[in-house]
Amino acid sequence: MIRNTLENIYSVSKITKYIKNIFNSDEILQDVWILGEISNFKKHSSGHLYFVLKDENSQIRCVMFRGNSLYLKFNPRDGMKVKIRGSINVYEKRGEYQLYAKEILEAGKGELYLAFEKLKNSLKDEGLFLEDYKKTIPFNKKKFAVITSPTGAAVRDIISISTRRFPNIQIIVVPALVQGINAAEDIAGKIDFLNTNFHDEIDFIIIGRGGGSIEELWAFNEEIVARSIFKSKIPVVSAVGHETDFTISDFTADLRSPTPSAAAEMNVPDKEQMSDSIQVLRDKLKFAIVRNYEKKMERLKYFKKNLVYLNPENKINQYYQYIDEFIYKASNILNNLIKINEEKIKKDLQRLDSLNPWAVIKRGYSICRKIPGYQIISKLKDIETNDHFEVIISDGKLIAKVDKKEEKKT
Amino acid sequence: MKKTKIDEKITFEEQLVKLENIVKNLEEGELSLDESVKLYQEGMNISKMCLEKLDNTKKKIEELVIKEDGKFSLKSFTLNEKEN
């Protein structure tokens, strides 16, 4: 019995490797088809799929790597009955064997899945999911109730996120069973109870729980819960499991939140942000009223300016100016006329001067005028012999008598 | 309970929408001075009420306890995760 001595002791790694080799050398385990129902399905962001394949008695962990999952012709979901081809190997790190799936085919749907589909379709036909019935989620009383396990992560997340977002919020925790045979009835009863006793006190109800298998979430797929949600006068937010989980209560509720945390994020407003946005609106109001006033003043100024422009006084002044200009022009013309005439008169005066008899007299000519009568004598017939006459000369006059008239000889 | 001036039937969101509309109306500037002053005052009132409303509650986390006879009471809620 050499093999069974302490000298031959195996390390964990070594024995695991040994087991792994047994799996590897087995022909059946290396390429096998397995029939079962999917549960605990998770799609990792890397694209790998992790789930459990099970039947009534047993289960086996499965993984399908991205390289294979890319070729799937459908989206595997919890409750689906599938045929999987793959190899079974040991995952050394955890010392667990698991099915490495290469191919998945739908093999009729799982029982739970079928029940889910049946109820979903009949409630849908009845109109329980219609958008028309969905109430908006108010936040008026700043108080809501949450129906969930009082010890789960869901209630903790909801309280911490809600109080972070709205520090003076009020929450009523309504403890309820969220899985197991009595859960559905309990949840439905609590919804009814809140409607009876807290209708005027709370804004909305969150029902939900953290993630789990399809069996663990099943209460939220029961008709009795759907009926209570639909009947509820208080808006109901359904927040069940992870964002990939869809339940009947999600479809019936006034709002579906992908997770309990999201239910708080979506329905409890951020107080600071809210008061900031109100403050912004107040500032806008102040700015707008001032702007409005300024705009009006601008218009007033504009009208005032226009009024000045249209003032009759302005027109009269214009006429005044026109008249002034006219007078200026007219006087210019007149002055010109006067100037021209002045010259003419000067010339005329000069000419006149040259015709002045006195000038002639000064040069030695004289004028004779008959006495009496003083008519100028220019011809012989103007005077008779012995008539008296005066002779005007430059410095006086002579009185004389005609002795004889003698005609000019030609 | 403290009485507030706010019409409880109008939700916070509706008040905000109303306030936003008032601001929009004022910003368009087509109103008479009288109307705009009236709107301004209304807007300031609503926003003040909204701000007051944000503060008119005190934080309270309670647990509903329902007795077998259907009577209920509220007690202060403390998170106990150990049972989980």
Characteristic key phrases:
heterodimer; A: 410 residues; alpha/beta; OB fold (Dihydrolipoamide Acetyltransferase, E2P); Rossmann fold; five-stranded mixed barrel; five-stranded parallel β-sheet; 12 helices; rod-shaped; B: 84 residues; alpha+beta; two-stranded antiparallel ribbon; 2 helices; 2 strands; disordered N terminus
Structural description of this entry:
The complex is a heterodimer of chains A (410) and B (84). Chain A is built from twelve helices and 13 strands. By secondary structure, chain A is an alpha/beta fold. Chain A folds into four domains: 10-109, Nucleic acid-binding proteins (OB fold (Dihydrolipoamide Acetyltransferase, E2P)); 117-128 and 141-269, Rossmann fold, CATH 3.40.50; 273-310; 361-401, no CATH class. Chain A has a five-stranded mixed barrel with strand order 1-2-3-5-4. In chain A, helix 5 packs parallel to helix 9. The mean pLDDT of chain A is 89. Chain B has 84 residues and is of the alpha+beta class. Chain B has one domain (12-76). Chain B has helices spanning 12-28, 33-55; strands at 60-66, 72-76. Chain B has a two-stranded antiparallel sheet with strand order 1-2. In chain B, strand 1 (60-66) and strand 2 form a beta hairpin. In chain B, helix 1 (12-28) runs antiparallel to helix 2. Chains A and B meet through helix 5, strand 7 and helix 10 of A and helix 1, helix 2 and strand 1 of B. Strand 7 of chain A pairs parallel with strand 1 (60-66) of chain B, so a sheet runs across the interface.
Annotated CATH topology of the largest domain in chain A: Rossmann fold
Q: From the 3D coordinates, which CATH architecture of the largest domain in chain A would you assign?
A: 3-Layer(aba) Sandwich
Number of domains of chain B: 1
Q: Proportion of β residues of chain B?
A: 5-15%
The H-and-E topology of chain B, N to C, reads as: HHEE
**Broad structural category of chain B:** alpha+beta
Total helical elements of chain A: 12
Q: What top-tier CATH class of the largest domain in chain A fits best?
A: Alpha Beta
